[in-house]
Amino acid sequence: MSWDFFVPVCVGDLVKTGGINQYVVQDVVSPKQLPSHLNSFKAALRSQGPLCILEHFDTGYTVLHAHYSVEVLICISLLSLLVVSGLSVSLPSLLLNASLSAPDRRDQLNAVKMSVFLLCKLTEILESDSYRQSIKGKAAGEGLLQWDSERETVLQALTQLLQLDIRSLWSLSLVEEEFISCVTCCCYKLLENPTISHVKNKPTRDAIIHLLGVQVKKYNHLLGASVKVIQLLQHFEQLSPVCAQAVSVWSTEYGVKAIVGEVMREIGQKSSEELAREGSGVKAFSSFLSELGTLVPDIMIPNISVLLTHLEGESPSLRVAVCEVLGEVLVRVLSGDGLDESGRADRDRFMDTLQEHLHDTHSYVRARVLQVYTRIVNSKALPLNRYSEVMGLAVGRLMDKSINVVKSAIQLLAAFIAHNPYSCKLSSADLKKPLEKEMDKLRELRERLQENAPVAVIKASELWAAMEPELLLTVRAELEPTSEGEGEQQEREEDEAGEEDDRATAIQIAQFLRDTSEIREDLPPTPQKDGAGDGGKEGVEESELKKQEMLLQYLRDTESFALQVERAIAVINTMLYWKTTSVVQEAVQFCVTVCEFSVANSLTGVRKMLPLVWSTDAAIKDAVVQAYRRLYLNPQGDNTRAKAQTLVDSLSELMVDASLGTIQCLEEIVSFSLSSNQSCHQYDPVIELQCKGAPFRLPQDNQLFTCLTQAIAEGVVMADPHWQSFMEQAVRLLYFLSESPDQLCSRLLQRCSRLLLDQIAEGGEMLASKDVSQFPVPAVSCVSLAQLLSLCGCVAFWQVSHLERSVSSELRRRRGETEEREEKAKVPSPANDSSVEEELGLMGASAEDTEAELIRKICETELLAGKEENLLCSFLPLLVRVCSSPGRYCHPQLTTAACLALSQYMMISPSVCEEHIRLLFTVLERSSLSVVRANAIIGLGDLTVRFPNILEPWTQNLYTRLSDENPAVRQTAVTVLTQLVLKDVLKVKGQVSEVAVLLIDPQTHIASLALNFFNELASKDNAIYNLLPDIISRLSDPERAMNEEDFHTIMKQLFSYITKERQTESLVEKLCQRFRTAKTERQWCDLAVSLSLLSMCERGLKRLQECWECYSDKLTETGVYQPLLSITAKLRRGAKPPLKVLMIVVVCIDWQNSFSQWFKPHKKAPPNSDIHNSKLGTSERLCQAKPSVTSCHDDSFVTPKPTRKSSKKAAITFSSDEEEEEGICTF
């Protein structure tokens, strides 16, 4: 084949006569003939491989040329053929072949060009059709829906092909520009889709970015990519994050860092006139730079100077973008103490730039720069030497005219306070005394060092250097002759006495040296020598001086910072009554922050915001309530007493010097909190303190109990919604503080019963007098009766708790005192110490058992005994009657109270529990009130903990409530069962499948509770592993009729907890064995899906092969065959050679089973594969028919006989080239 294929600029150029040896399309068929030609192409692809494109390219050209009149499915079919052609598989070996001939190389090159050209053009056509359909608002057809799933596959195929070293196919390894442009234009065409930035298109977006990255790195597309990025940003504003991600990936994963500089230079070179004309492009550039700064700030530093020119431009958005880039660089790169000189210089320069734009002419820029500084401060990247300066600038921005700037300034100041490096308490008044003290200490250190300074010693050389000029002048003046006569006479005398003078001079020098040495011996030691011994002490003092100077500077900076905060407080306090809601909210939050750091005058703002609780703006009112709750109603402490003390102190602090208006505001805050049911729990610590921390008990006639019992009794006959919670806490307090709470509560029940009877009598008289206005009286009586029954149940519950806690602990205390006295009275001999200790230990254990038995006996016989002073037993028949007659006693509150009280009565003894357990479960199942069912579940949960043996046979009834129609009941049920199972009160059995169903509950909070249940259950050894087979059987039960998608969702979550290889292997065997007992096709499919969800390993695959006979006759079902085949598909990549051989065997067996549906039984396999010959007979026999549903028994291990003929399949299709080339085998 002597022609060459040239990638055309236009598709129509392929039919025009070109140059020498240029390929020209000859056979353009009609659209009606395309299916047959595609079939020929498919057959040639199977026989000839990828090179068949050389002979069938005209078919692909016809699809491109007539795509408007061709069905989309034909385009998809051609696209699938090109994807599975296997060029990326066959090329690597050919490229490594050095002896490849020129004609073969030309054929391979032409095949690559043709395949890539058709792939790219088909992709563009299908993408355009899909976009047009979305614009028109029409539903996408089957072909376009298939294209959505094939798009990513096409891009991956192109990426795999271009990652190969295909440049060797070209002469001199120079890839022609048209070939690269064909691929890049396709990628950029896909990026122009408006939905490409959506989350659902992330795989496609990533595939495009990686495909372009390969071309940028290997095919010199750097400059083209940078220019195209700029063009995309100019025309498609929504592509800013996509382009930033692409540039980041190219510079990091592909190592092409120059692309960042090129794009930055392109943006930096844009003039103000160009930016003014582009309009939306400026916003895209700004968003792109901001996003890129968050991704690769370190790579942007070398080229950041080209962007600084835009800080002087007219576009505020670009100025903001550059400032945000500087902020990211300062936070993530130029931060910390390990910077070199150049790094510190860059950091200071960038900081100066940001500070300049705090005074920008545009308010948007000022606000965003303040936000950038907030991020810097929160990241602790601001140098200490700039704290004071930036703080002062932020305080100045509080006077800004723009609301957004003011809000940003307040946020920055709050960040300064929250992340300040100075102190947790910022009060300038508290810092004055420590500052003065440290200043005095520094002054003392300096004076001490001055006193201990050594005396200066002048060296001989220094002394001579100072005296030499004066000596020279004196000698010259003395030795200079006065006249010429005297000079001549002196010269003659010197000549005559020359020899004598030399001898005399030598004698004088020797005498002088001797005298000097004697004088040196008599001299005292010099001060310099004395000072050398104190050098260590002097060094220590100097070190202390430096430390003191640093401490003093730290205190000065702290004081300066505190003063600036106080200055800001004075300004922000005035903003609490601004008309702008957002500013007021920020001011409230700032006041809370400064109060938490004990800044001076911080309470001024807190008190000033208090009247805002009356604001008509709900947001402002809620902000004030939240602020006071955070400051004063959120007690902190290690224990309950400490929390209660903190709460009392905080509230007391508010009441100091409080005016009547302040008290009213505080009352409003408390009432608002109570009405919203958000702070009721804050009173629990006080009650807990009173209950648990009381070291003594009060007498029954104490005024506290008198007031409490009176309030409870009077509230029984009143319809007060708060009476129930008050009664519960009051009865609890009675049992914790009263000396004889049982007698006190017995009289309370008598008093309440008498009041209720009086009310009923008065109502009867009113009805007898036929007073129509009094008809609501029976309803009030029902409410009163409900409250009385609630009181009875609460008394019964706390009576049992009182016996088992207080009375039992008191018995132990008395027994301990008795034993201690007896031990002191007896003086055992040393020889019998060990026997005495053993005897005391046995006696102690026996005594504890006796005390426990005594408590149980009291609960069993005396609590419900018919004595006059004990009225608990009198109400039990009434409770049973109300619960067993819902038609007669239909009042909701009465039914609810009776059910809850009955469950509390059943806590008293096992006999009462056994007697009425059936009634309580009947109420649970048949009550029409959801609150009754929920309360019954809670009560039964408590009974399960107390009497597990009695409740064990009724466990299934508890699990049934997991499928209750009411969400509140389901939530209560899953919460109670979670506690019972995780605390090992209930044994985990197959009923847990009901909890698994809640994983797909429409209520998200219920689904999250179920997910939390399994997360906690997974922490127990092998818990979920042991339950999975039963769960699968229950969920796949035909009677349940669960949706397949729901079943897959549940199983996917449950199988995620199976991580051990041994567990996977065992589950494979268990699930395969269940194929034998499965009776329906749906159960087969569910088991196959469950197997596919396992994280299969080599051992698991071997076990799957060993269990072949269990499921081989089910493979005629697509729902069984496809999941099992997907198991091998998961293991192909990265598999070891032995595992690959095993997968080939399994796949071949599966394929033979599939092919047996189309081939007659008398057809035999070719004898060219020994492995398959050994397996075909068995698989052929097994796959002839499906098992019989009627003849299949649970204990049957024989392959069922066929009852119907297998359905015919349409045709064999190949899902992907990877499955074909790895799973293919010869028959």
What does this 3D model show about the protein?
By secondary structure, the chain is an all-alpha fold. Among the domains are: 1-220, no CATH class; 232-382; 601-673, no CATH class; 697-763 and 781-818 and 851-952, no CATH class. It has 55 helices and no strands. The longest helix is centred in the middle third of the chain and has 49 residues, at 777-825. The radius of gyration is 47 Å and the shape is flat. The two termini are 34 Å apart. Keywords: Cell cycle, Cell division, Chromosome, Cytoplasm, DNA condensation, Mitosis, Nucleus, Phosphoprotein.
Give descriptors for this structure.
Condensin_cplx_su1; cell division; cytoplasm; 1227 residues; disordered C terminus; nucleus; cell cycle; mainly alpha
